[in-house]
């Protein structure tokens, strides 16, 4: 039975490469055509493959519907939270999780610092979109046309001398973030607060959320906080793997 299931499942990645006929499926599986046909018929009955008029098989609509339904029911906060807690326990600083919704970037989870001096932020509150590290990651992943249109519509309040001053500077920063795969806010929103952030990606590689570690200067310097970037990125990668189903769950703080 396990061998039959294994063979049937092996057909799906083959058809993901494009339509294939019975002979191609049998050859890839290393089985007789009659065995391949039996497997294909079973998958066809469940809507997972579809037989075209040219007698070749392709992935069925039911498979895409199941994938879409599964993605819609995934809760990124639920998946990410244990990882955020572990990171907080390891470094002691404030950890945030944020998403991009309806032209705003919102915090959807937070684990507070263990130090007495803490950040003022709360779940459900929009971030300062032109300076926040998590916002840069989420907006940098947008297609170029959408990035430009959004940048032109935004206002650029000068929270500090390090705040992003205009659309041109913002677009250059987003391009840099897009290329390097991580982001910082070093005193751009509050002079005394620094932040490093990494993206969380879905199965298609797109950024679905961003997570960050933030700390005030009185607790840790900007340079010291930047040394945590590899750990932050490992945590984000672990969340991405679990969210997308690409990799086994690993301890990112190991």
TrEMBL record:
IclR-ED domain: residues covered: 62-245
InterPro entries attached to this UniProt entry: GAF-like_dom_sf (IPR029016), HTH_MetabolicPath_Reg (IPR050707), Tscrpt_reg_IclR_C (IPR014757), Tscrpt_reg_IclR_N (IPR005471), WH-like_DNA-bd_sf (IPR036388), WH_DNA-bd_sf (IPR036390)
Residue ranges of domain HTH iclR-type in the record: 2-61
Keyword Ribosomal protein found: no
PROSITE patterns reported for this sequence: HTH_ICLR (PS51077), ICLR_ED (PS51078)
Pfam families: HTH_IclR, IclR_C
Gene Ontology terms for molecular function: DNA binding; DNA-binding transcription factor activity
Keywords: Activator, DNA-binding, Glycerol metabolism, Transcription, Transcription regulation
GO BP annotations listed: glycerol metabolic process; negative regulation of DNA-templated transcription
Function according to Swiss-Prot or TrEMBL: May be an activator protein for the gylABX operon.
Name of the molecule in the record: Glycerol operon regulatory protein
